[in-house]
Amino acid sequence: MADDEQLVRVAGRRLRLTNLDKVLYPETGTTKAEVIDYFSRIAPLMIPHVTGRPITRKRWPEGVQSTPFFAKDLEAGAPGWLRRMPIQHSGGAKDYPLADDTAALVYLAQTAALELHVPQWRFGDDGMPAPPDRLVLDLDPGPGAGLVECAAVARWARRILTDMGLEPYPVTSGSKGLHLYAALEGALTSEQVSQVAKELARALESDHPELVVSSMSKALRDGKVLVDWSQNNGKKTTIAPYSLRGRERPFVAAPRTWDELDDPGLRHLVIGDVLLRADELGDPMAAIGFRAGARGGTTGPLSAYIAKRDANRTPEPVPENPLAHATPAGERPRFVIQEHHATRLHWDFRLEHDGVFASWAVPRGVPPTPGRNNLAVQTEDHPLEYGSFEGTIPRGEYGAGTVTIWDDGRYDLEKWREDEIILTAEGRPGGPLGRARLALIRTDGDGEKSTWLLHRMKTDAAGLPQPDAATPTPTEQADRRPPRDHETLSLAVPRAMLSVSATPGIARAAAQRWGAWTEIKWDGMRALGVWDGERLRLYARSGADATARYPDIVRDVDLGPRPLVLDGEVVAMDASGRPSFTRLQQRMNLRSPDEIAREVPRTPVQYVLFDALPVGDEHDAVLPLRERRRLLEDLSARLPAQIIVPPVFDDVDAALETSGRLGLEGVVVKDPASSYQPGVRSPSWLKVKHVRTQEVVIGGMRPGRGGRASMIGSLLVGVPTPEGLHYCGRVGSGLSERALASLLDLLAPLVVNTDPFADTPAADAADAIWVQPSVVAEVEFAEWSPNGTLRQARWRGLRPDKSAADVVRED
Fold first, then answer.
1. Of 781, 774, 782, nearest to 798 (Cα)?
2. pLDDT along the chain (811 residues), means of 10
3. Domain extents for the chain?
4. pLDDT 10s digits, 448-489
5. Alpha carbon distance 730, 720 (integer Å)
6. Strand runs (DSSP E) across 622-723, as ranges?
7. Is the pTM of this model over 0.85?
8. How large is the C-alpha radius of gyration of the chain?
9. Under which EC number(s) is this enzyme classified (predicted)?
10. What is the structure's pLDDT at 468?
């Protein structure tokens, strides 16, 4: 391999990247490597708008200062796994590339295809162009006009489109003007959509002749904005949302919000702007991505899956186009085991095969030893997107119940026949499956609802004895309870000792009485680490295994042969080196291994320790804190860089002053003589916060108004009490559009008909949409009102590490 070449793996595909130092944008020094990085990072937002559409590429192999060339037909050297579809031209058929995954976008970037142009239609199940699923207007400013004038025309167009029942989404084109997109149901031909767009352009020109022109004549365009309706023609294309532009700087065709169009300083965005917005806002036009308009036919390998589900009623992935994507040759396919709390608890065992997940329902899960064979019933094939699905399927829908990932990973296939499958599956590091050689043997029936036996083999693929499962079976895990208060800490299910809120005065008095020390309070996620002598596992305070979520913490750890339980906080630092709970949200809510792997370098985390407990002898659980601290400090010499032991303060006021000056959350005063009490809120740990925060349970949502008309306006929250869920008020401040969209996806399946609060005021209940009170969040606030509501509450983020039962009022 040449020195300037790299062989990389992207989304399970192998790609050869070359000339990475080649400068493609001389004015900014932007290299091909940076272009590839941009496309790989923006892929989750871009793919929904280009998938299934033939891509015409505009390439600049020598950089934007050179002459580009258009490419339609896919070059002969393109990788075999890259999807392509033929379109007939006068000279014969041309194979156009399709970008259905990150690897496809990275390949196109490797060829210096900076601009990706697509039509407003997608290929149908028959391989022919389907009716257009979106309308586009290109607002092109003439001499003397610019983005501000385009924004004014866009607002006028928006009024007309919304009156037609179409919601438009603006995109600054990265060249001169704006594009407006609106989703269609797929009931009109391209010619009919073009005619509608033409009449709309003429109406705008008639109403606003001083600024709008609908004719292509350049002589009429000085100081005006051309409303170009012609790109709805089935043979024409438009620059794809999130595509780069071959301009002097790396400008992007960037989806925008309508609020942004009111800014008199509206400008085109470059790579860095768009990536930052992606992290903070998500995709402003996500609503017209994958599922815009009709989702297509129901023929193909996923027809049974699609026929049983309505994308508007279930949070499960319902693919628009049920065509299978072949597993790339030479790559290890994926598996996933999902715990499914439906009418009866069972585990769904899924193996990637021929572009789908072949699936079985296994009532008792994977057998722990070769001595037990568990029944497995084959179900319909599932889309590959299901491999990362976790959520609650609403009551009344097929498969209703809660789905979580028990384990997932890759597998090596030995045999796949109609009646027998043999494989070796390797789960997540620290996951419950480990590495297991398994066999599925069909006993009755054929296809869906056929019955099989799931068997754990005695030997591995090399014929060597295979150990029994090191972890309990799924059923045994579900039956386990956490240890009661003051029981010896268990390596299997640890629990956290909890602190009590206090004022500075109370903390000072306690410190003097105890001879206490003070620790910084870290704004992160509480995590217990379990070291079994060989590897480290992380558990959230709820007891959920969080090891796979933070691979950068558990790697390269060696704490010696003695088992330990560590207590600390997982934190993410902001640009100034302060813990940021908002930044940590980018890691806390991830489940997919691919998403986690992508986010690790972008949002690194650290594990900040403040306690260590040896496990073994009975007296270890009641060691005083001063001895546990000594153990922790002795341990610090063995810790890798990502795990730290911060210093303690002898003076409460000095600690408060330091934490306040550094913008930290607060401090915790601890009694050195105290023992560790799992699961207990102990007065031996007193926390003093600079900013008051409160964990709350979400029990409802109110619809938005104005700019939030299609989103959540505010959340109704409460705190559990012996009398029921006490209503603590509304929270709307601090919620970004991205957070609102995620919350709507999370809460929609939890909608119920009854008010979960014991005391909701009539004014707040009038237009409320109630949800199951199971989702925990954290807010900051000014003070408690006399009636127990939060004043000036502001959103901080979700707390997936905690359950509703954990929430108590923090006075």
1. 774
2. 68 82 94 94 90 94 94 88 88 89 91 96 85 95 94 95 92 96 90 95 94 86 93 96 96 95 92 88 83 41 76 82 48 90 87 88 89 88 89 84 89 89 89 90 84 90 73 41 36 67 77 84 89 88 83 91 90 84 83 85 93 67 83 88 90 84 84 84 84 91 72 91 91 83 86 90 87 92 85 87 85 72
3. 5-118, 134-288, 303-476, 498-689, 693-806
4. 888 899 999 988 888 888 876 644 444 444 333 333 333 334
5. 16
6. 643-644, 666-670, 681-689, 693-703, 712-721
7. no
8. 29
9. 6.5.1.1
10. 64
Q: Which CATH architecture has domain 5-118?
A: Alpha-Beta Complex (3.90)
Query: For the chain, first and last CA: distance in Å?
Result: 64
CA atoms within 13 A on the CB side of 724: 8
Q: Which H helix or E strand runs over 278?
A: helix 271-281
**CATH topology classification for 134-288:** Alpha-Beta Plaits (3.30.70)
Q: For residue 580, how far is the Cα from the chain centroid?
A: 18
pLDDT at 298: 38
Alpha helix (H) ranges present in 111-210? 147-163, 190-207
In whole angstroms, give the CA distance from residue 16 to residue 688: 54
Helix, strand, coil abundance in the chain, percent, nearest 5: 25, 30, 45
CATH of domain 693-806: 2.40.50.140
Q: Of 58, 224, 521, 687, which one is the catalytic site residue?
A: 521
Exposed/middle/buried for 802, CB within 10 Å: 0-12, 13-18, 19+?
Answer: buried
521 catalytic? Reply is: yes
Both tokens of 427, joined, read 């789960």
pLDDT, position 483: 34
Amino acid at 328: P
Cβ neighbours of residue 480 closer than 8 Å, sequence gap 6 or more:
472, 492, 493
Please check whether residue 168 is in contact with residue 184, taking contact to mean a CB–CB distance below 8 angstroms: no
Tokens at residue 447, please? Answer: 């296809």
User: Helix/strand/coil (H, E, C) string of 119-145?
Assistant: CCCCECCCCCECCCCEEEEEEEECCCC
Distance CA 332, CA 329 (A): 9
Structure tokens at 332: 């290890």
CB 244 within 8 A of CB 174: yes
| CATH class, 498-689 region | alpha beta
The secondary element (H helix, E strand) that includes residue 341 is strand 334-341
Q: Which residue has the tokens 């509206």?
A: 266
Question: Would you say 586 and 525 are in contact if contact means Cβ atoms under 8 Å apart?
Answer: no
Tell me, what amino acid is at 203?
Answer: A
Pairing of strands 498-501, 681-689: parallel
Helix (H, G, I), strand (E, B) or coil at 45: helix
